[in-house]
Amino acid sequence: MLAALGAAGRVADARALFDRMPCRSPASWNTLVTCYCKAGDLGSARLVFEASLRAGSSSVVSWNAMIDGYCKAGRMDAARDLFDRMGSTLPDVVTWNTMMAGYLHGGNPTAAIAMWATSHWASRSISRSVSSGHGSTPC
Known about the structure:
By secondary structure, this protein is mainly alpha-helical. 73% of the residues lie in helices and 0% in strands. It has helices at residues 2-7, 11-20, 26-38, 42-54, 60-72, 76-85, 93-105, 109-122, 124-133. The radius of gyration is 16 Å and the shape is globular. The termini are far apart. Mean pLDDT is 86; it is low at 126-139. This is Pentatricopeptide repeat-containing protein. InterPro entries: PPR_At4g14850-like_plant, PPR_rpt, TPR-like_helical_dom_sf. GO terms for molecular function: RNA binding.
């Protein structure tokens, strides 16, 4: 229901429903973060994201939603800060791809290539997924 309200642009209604939920799952937190990001309200998205961390209800999906929101808004500095805050074990292939795409869309192919090179050394499985899963290479 949260996702449907968000998709319909009814973010305030999604928030009201979320606030009435007696038990919030990581999926409900992720959905609300995504709703705010898609609406362009990164401030509210960040507040919900940080609250999900404090509640212990975040997942890599929460991080990816917030990073994607920053990337799509051209806020690569904020996206990179969150990415760095994740540490070395939490980022997944979606995280790496989101960061690389953000750099490319922002006109910074050098940073995208550097991110790809870092992903290669961070995890060979991520590197293989990034380079072969999308049929592209960094050059």
